[in-house]
Amino acid sequence: MTFEEFERRAHEVFAEIPPEYREGVDGLSVERRAVPHPELPEVYTLGECLTETYPSEWGGAGEVRSIVALYYGSFLRLSRMEDAWDWEEEIWETITHEVRHHLESLALDDELEVRDYADDQNFARREGVEFDPFFYRSGHPLGPGSWEVSGDVFLEREVEAGPSASREPVRVEWEGNPVAFPLPVPLGDVHFVTLEDVYAEKGDVVVVLVRRRGAWESLRGMLSGYRPEVRESMVRVGREDEAQAG
Q: Which of the residues in the chain have pLDDT under 50?
């Protein structure tokens, strides 16, 4: 898709959004440049919601103004890397995503920014670079101890470690089916275990084993200078007597 075609289609999609959802959005800016992620390779920013808040004694929607910006160069580079790239779908998804950022700014709601953070951290995990070991808690909650991030499902379980630890398999349930696998050795403080041949609708099912340390919430930084030991592995799951490490 050429820049001219992209710009025309982007403005058409923007105009299709009902006016009440575009309240406070001053327009759509389409730029030729690409915006690479500052740290993650092959990741590009497709669009941004550039928002300014003007202090007001009365508050309300009138004090929040935004411009939605799209970066054609980012779309173009990703289209060359992904065979199944759909220009129409990506334009629509990016514009509506950024308009939602504006709406949440009106509501003083940072949920979408938190979810974006979780997506970035999960990508870093997949790429094998440093990441926040508790990023998944910023994802979409599915129930007690379970979250979805970028299609992957994370099931958190607290476990004992050391000589007194139980040798019983780790047991979880996914979509009504019980699965079991051995406790990984070494365990570390936070261990991401991807279940082989068990899938969520759009990604993997990952069991996050958090070593019990008393007040283990301190792993996020309450202990000054402490960094948890993070490990990852894959296991094949089945009946308890068939569970084996992958």
A: 58-62, 214-224, 239-246
Measured between alpha carbons, how far is 176 from 184 in angstroms, rounded to an integer?
Answer: 24
Distance of alpha carbon 196 from alpha carbon 208, whole angstroms: 14
pLDDT of amino acid 125: 92
The pLDDT score that the predictor gives to residue 54 is 59
**What is the count of structural domains for the chain?**
2
pTM: 0.58
Q: What angle do CA 59, 61, 62 make, to 5 degrees?
A: 80
Question: Does residue 120 belong to any structural domain of this protein?
Answer: no
Largest Cα span, the chain: 67
The domain of 141 spans 134-245
**Residue 146 and residue 231 share a domain:** yes
196 bridge partner residues? 236
Q: Is 164 helix (H, G, I), strand (E, B) or coil?
A: coil
Beta strand 244-245 with 177-181 is: unpaired
157: helix, strand or coil: strand
Structure confidence at residue 109 (pLDDT): 56
Task: State residue 161's pLDDT score.
Answer: 67
Angle separating helix axes 87-106 and 72-81, nearest 10 degrees = 130
Distance CA 29, CA 115 (A): 24
pLDDT digits over 9-20, tens only?
Answer: 999 999 998 887
Residue 23 lies in a domain: yes
Q: Count CB neighbours of 214 within 10 A.
A: 6
